[in-house]
Structures are given as C-alpha cells and as structure tokens.
Amino acid sequence: MLAHEMKLQWMVLAVFMVLSKWQHCAAGDQLVPCYFIFGDSLADNGNNNRLQTLAKVDYAPYGVDFRNGPHWKDLFVFVAEILGFHNYIPPFATAREADMLYGLNYASGSAGIRDETGQELGECISLNMQLQNHHKTVQNLIGMLGNESALTYLNKCLYSVGMGNNDYLNNYFLPQFFPTSKEYTLERYTQLLIEQYSQQLRSLYESGARKLVVFGLGKIGCVPGAIATYGTNGSACVELLNDASRLFNSKLLPAIDQLNDDLPDAKIIYINSYRIGEDSTVLDLKVNNTACCPSSAIAQCIPDQIPCQNRTQYMFWDSFHPTEIFNIFYAERSYSALDPSYAYPYDIRHLISLDQGVAEAM
After folding, report:
1. From 41, 110, 273, 280, active-site residue
2. Which of 78, 209, 270, 314 could form a disulfide with 292 if both were Cys (CB 3.0 to 4.6 A apart)?
3. What's the pLDDT at 69?
C-alpha cells in the first residue's frame, strides 16, 4: 500500500505541476510548457558524456563562458531562453523524472539520420535511438498523467530537430570509413536521407508532437575542420560540402510541405540555417575560418588549452561549432525571422502563437 500511495501522490503532484505550467504559459511566463530537442553535437549538452566516444566535450576549455551548464551556450540554449525557460533543458541521460514535464534534450554528438553515421568516433545516439528514448519519456508521462492528458500536454510542447550534418561530414565524405559514397551518387544518397528523415519526423508526430521546428543544414563547407580536411582549391570554403547542404535543404522543404499536408494538425516549420549563416556578416566578426581554441584532428578543442581572449570576434569556438555570439544571432533570427527567407512557412514566434489560449481554457 505504501508504494501505491507514493505513486498516487506523485501522480497528483505531476497533474498539479502540469496545470501550473499551463497557467504560467497563459500568463506569459514560459511561452510553451515544454521543449524537446533532437540533434547532433550542435545541441548535445551531455548525452555523450557517458558513452565510449571521442565526440564529447566534458572538459576545459568547454564551458568557460557557461557557468550553469556543462558545455557552451549553443543555439538551443538561447532558443529556450527566448521561450522563457529559466533553466537549460537537461540531457536525457541524466534527467530526473520531474524534468520530463519541462522537456528533454536527446541530442548526441556525431549522430545522424542514418544509424551508422559518426561511429568512426565511437558510440553515439542516432536519431532513431533518440526517438526511442523519447518514446520512453512519452510512456512515462502517460503513466504519470494518463493517456489523454499526456498527449494533450505534449501537443502544446515545442520540438526541434536538427540533423544531417554528420550524415555528410561523418559518413558520405569519409570513404575511408563508410561505403556510402561508393554505393550512391550524392543525389541518390541525399534522397535516401530525406526519405528516412521524413519517416522519423512522422514517428515524432505519432508520439504527440504537433509543433516541430526542423533546422536545415548550414554552410558545412565553411567550418574550419572541413577546410583543414578537404582544402578549398582557392575558394573560401569547401564548395562540394556546401553543394551537399544546399541539395539536402532543397529536398527537405517539399518533404516538410508533404508532412504538413499528410498529418492532421501538424505544424512543421523549416529554419533556413544556410541563409541565416550567409547574413551573419552583419556581426562583423574578424575571424571566420579559424577556431578560437587550439583544435585537434577531430575538430574539438585540445584539452586544457587556452582559447582566444577575444571570443566575440570569432565565428567558431572549435573547428566545427560556432561561438556564442553567432548562436545568439542564429537563435534570434530563427525565433523572429527579420527576412522571410529565414523560415518557412513562418518563424518560431508565429508557430508557438498558434492555438494560444487553449491552455488557459483547460
């Protein structure tokens, strides 16, 4: 009986927390009750720390400017701040049961749409595995709140997914580790990625997601790690990699349109990371092709090395990941698209405003 009573007390507490969160959202505190994040190292805030992998950054100088979290303030930290969250969204790997009500971060460094992507660096949590982890979260929420209440709650949450970078950088363009470039043309490989990605987004919808933000690929040929690895043949960036990004994005847009047409009440938007990156020239950063920290062959900061002091003048923190100043710019333009080309069919601000007031009526 004691265990049953404790479970009942927890369920009552969970329902109270849900109702409180709906009231706070309606009152203008948090703009959404919860935020779930799927992605790669651009979003990973600790899920890889316990894995056998080189793709983790749980050491200095990472975190030098982020006292309240494990790494640096990435794009999704700033998006969460704009949404009104007072704490960063915790990683699934270390989250407590109560954290589920606010959202979780499932992202994993080196992970991709394809299961094998990134495995040359060790273990990672592919998007398929991230979705499996989210399914566990959904089942736990159903156990806490009941099926109908849990799904109603999840419908009001925001979801963001940013995948595909590593399917090129840590798969297709690494023929010494992966056979995909021998098996498929770039066009065919990209089409297969989009088809698999579409099914994964459908799976997320089936788990209760209705408001999804899908981030397109940026200029992956311009990151210092890519330039060092492939060379530029006199160009500023590795154009073959940028071509792959543009091809991926061009196929992703109609796939999102199709999902919105096929899935009742789905509101899926696309963030044009490539275009936002092009417009980052307004930041007037002085160093755009070199990392702020001394970086290793796998593009990460060398442990305990001293980073640059003028971090606000650098585009890249290490040889793959942007600095905080760019991530702030990226988050602000994603949330409120000053240029119509930044988001399709609308930006995050418009997305979360849809159906506003439903929580108040609950």
Report:
1. 41
2. 314
3. 37
318 is catalytic: yes
| 3-state secondary structure at position 46 | coil
Residues with Cβ < 8 Å from 189, sequence gap 6 or more?
A: 172, 180, 181
Contact of 223 with 230, CB cutoff 8 Å? no
How many angstroms separate the CA atoms of 17 and 28, rounded?
A: 16
- Strand ordering across the sheet containing 35-39: 35-39, 158-162, 211-215, 267-271, 343-344
Which one is catalytic: 40, 74, 99, 318?
Answer: 318
Q: Is 181 a catalytic residue?
A: no
Query: How many H-runs (helices) and E-runs (strands) does the chain carry?
Result: 13, 7
Tokens 């073959």 appear where? Answer: 240
d(CA 256, CA 344): 9
pLDDT 10s digits, 265-278: 999 999 999 999 99
What HEC string does 142-183 produce? HHHHCHHHHHHHHHCCEEEEECCHHHHHHHHCCCCCCCHHHH
- Is there a catalytic annotation at residue 245? no
Catalytic residue among 44, 110, 321, 347: 321
Three-state DSSP class for 223? Answer: coil
Q: Is 0.85 surpassed by the pTM of this model?
A: yes
Longest C-alpha distance within the chain, in Å? 74
